[in-house]
Amino acid sequence: MPKIIEFVGPRGVGKSFIYKKLMSRLSKNKAIASASKFYPKRTDADFLSAEFIIFYSRYLFDKKLYPKKNGYIFSKNNPEFVSTCWNLLSKNKTKDHNGIDSRFRIAKNLYSYHAKYQTIIDADDNRICITDELLLHTIVQLIEGVNIKDIERFSNKVPLPELVVYLEAPHHIIFERIKKRKTILSHRGMNDCQLNSSIESQMKAYQILIENIKKRGAKILKIDATHDLNKNIKMIINTLKKNNY
d(Cα 236, Cα 230) in Å, to the nearest integer? Predict the structure, then answer.
């Protein structure tokens, strides 16, 4: 079963940017791969099916290619965690900042992350899987504001990765980065006051999450996302070597 290394941190902290640079640097390392490398390969018979045409089209446009049925398998294997997620979603996310019920959208995202995780751990592959978003990331989709008990419930049930790379940055840096981005659906339509409140909540939620999973034995590597990119990548690679990944 692959060992998973997950990047986490508030939206806008720079996870995807550092992750992509790291994976580019590790491209020749045959012991490490991104999450998509663990998705099932297609057989020759698949080339004749309409399903494969859809599959390959999604591949060309870099869409998620893991079997959706694995979300069901994950639910079967992790009933307490799934129940916790559903309870938090029902309790905290009735409407978003625009007054729109976002529970169906979030539930769909959760199911996709669960399917992705199950696909990775079921892979007959001994490589290290490094991913920029997986189960820990879903905490910010489930909790509105900072409710310590709700974060503890999530932290106590979530399946843990082998290593967590936790990216941090000052509030004002994250604010400036998000303001420049147009693609973050969860922040679309927010005024500055709402955005500041959302960033503060996410930062606090991740801090509590990291503290709690550390108590469960999770290995945490903290990265200051404002530091030099090459130094941060070197720190991550050195940690991988130190832990024999």
Answer: 10
Q: What is the DSSP letter of 106?
A: H
CA distance linking residue 217 with residue 152, whole number of Å: 15
The structure tokens listed for 169 are 């940055």
Give the pLDDT confidence of 48-89 residue by residue, as tens digits.
455 555 555 544 444 456 677 899 999 999 999 999 999 988
Q: Which DSSP symbol is given to 7?
A: E
Please name the residue that has the structure tokens 């832990």. 243
Residue 52, phi then psi, degrees to nearest 5: -65, -35
DSSP code, position 97: T
* Alpha carbon distance, N-terminus to C-terminus of the chain: 14
Distance CA 82, CA 122 (A): 18
Instruction: Name residue 120's amino acid.
Output: I
Q: Which residues pair with 165 in a beta bridge?
A: 7, 221
Nearest to 141 by CA among 151, 131, 152: 151
Sign of the C-alpha dihedral computed for residues 189, 191, 196 and 198 taken in this order: negative
What would the pLDDT profile of 187-217 be if each residue is shown by its tens digit?
Answer: 667 788 988 988 998 999 999 999 999 999 9
According to the 3-state scheme, what is the secondary structure of 120-134?
HHHCCCCCEEEECCC
Helix H or strand E encompassing 33: strand 32-34
Rg (CA), the chain: 18
Listing DSSP states for 24-52 in one string gives HHTTT-TTEEEGGGGSPPPPGGGGGSHHH
Using CB atoms within 10 Å of the CB of residue 24, give its burial: 0 to 12 exposed, 13 to 18 middle, 19+ buried.
exposed
